[in-house]
Amino acid sequence: MNLQNAVAVVTGGASGLGLATVEALVARGAKVAVFDMNEQAGAAVAAAHPGKVIFQKVNVADAQSAAEGIAATVKAFGALHIAVNCAGIGAAGKTLDRDSKALPLDAFAKTIQVNLIGSFNIARLAAEEMAKNQPDEDGQRGVIIHTASVAAFDGQTGQAAYSASKGGVVGMTLPMARDLARYGIRVNTIAPGIFDTPMMQGVSEEYRAPLIAMVQNPKRFGAPAEYGSLCVSIVENNYLNAETIRLDGGIRMQAK
Length: 256
Prior knowledge:
alpha/beta
């Protein structure tokens, strides 16, 4: 798909991997709607790219909020061709804590609600708009990119909820791609390893060092721009479909 003048939605687009994706898409000529709960950061991204980026405060796990965000995007830019799901939460908690007390069910449910249901919510609404597009010469109308995690495969101690949510994202990639094939809408997922996002930049070297030790090559955290670059490649390569791609420097997470 040609990114010049294409219209994209990026959830979680005000920071981290989402922001890097917004910048990569804009650099290739796309127009982008940033969906985020952080109004100040989202407005700043839009102000940095006048006419090319708009901001919408959207709760991805809420049906009405997401529908309003999608509608505002189409109203502003006239169509929707790309949706990238970067919004997510990463709270940790063991199934039983140190006092042998069970993890509160609400904590597990919230992670599933945002990471898995939120991703499906945006995808279903985006696909409905993409299906209205005229197909290009290769029969393509749209591209959906989900963000999973290496935790979908190598979940660590305390990551039952997070791993389940990201495993669900991986699990729905193929059937969603099959569902949407007749419309010329491709669906792929990226499973990032440890990236040098603002959250990771705020932790101590004592915490960072063991994580870097698990990375094979190059021996560092991923750069958000590398995630954004992969999103661009997925959009532009029409034969890449129904795939989950690990972007992790060869890391295989240990139990803790």
